[in-house]
Amino acid sequence: MTENEIGKIIVSCALKVHKALGAGLLESAYAACLFHELVKAGLGVRSEVPVPIVYDGVKLECGYRIDLLVEEKVVIEIKAVESLNDVHLAQLITYLKLSNLRLGYLINFNVKLIKYGIKRVVNNL
Fold first, then answer.
1. For residue 119, what are the contacts with CB-CB under 8 A and spacing of at least 6?
2. Rounded CA gap, 1 and 68, in Å?
């Protein structure tokens, strides 16, 4: 399955979760529900995946974690904030670079319509 095919399923599952729960919950609740929907859709998903930093030739575990990693190909960073800002985007881009992956989704569930809370990000390796 390609990253784009996985992405379509991610967006569909995020829509289901948002439609059922709406805005106003914690990120952890949305992450658990989205994880469940992605697994139901037949995708391999891991949560809270450690992202080490390699600095000066040394691999350092600094506590960074990908919210959801789908099919070992697509990163999902989940937010429940008033609005997404540049720091949230930078975080996702950094995770994509550190994990050497191409596609990520920044999903903010604290919106009236989920289409305004989904940002697709491509890492030009």
1. 84, 89, 92, 105, 106, 107
2. 17
Angle at which helices 3-21 and 27-40 cross, to 10°? 120
Listed residue (115, 105, 39) closest to 77, CA to CA? 105
Give SS3 for 45. Answer: strand
Residue 125 pLDDT more than 80? no
Token pair 């992450």 in the structure block, residue: 31
Question: Hey, is 12 helix, strand or coil?
Answer: helix
Q: 37-96 pLDDT, tens per residue? A: 999 999 999 999 999 998 899 989 888 999 999 999 999 999 999 999 999 999 999 999
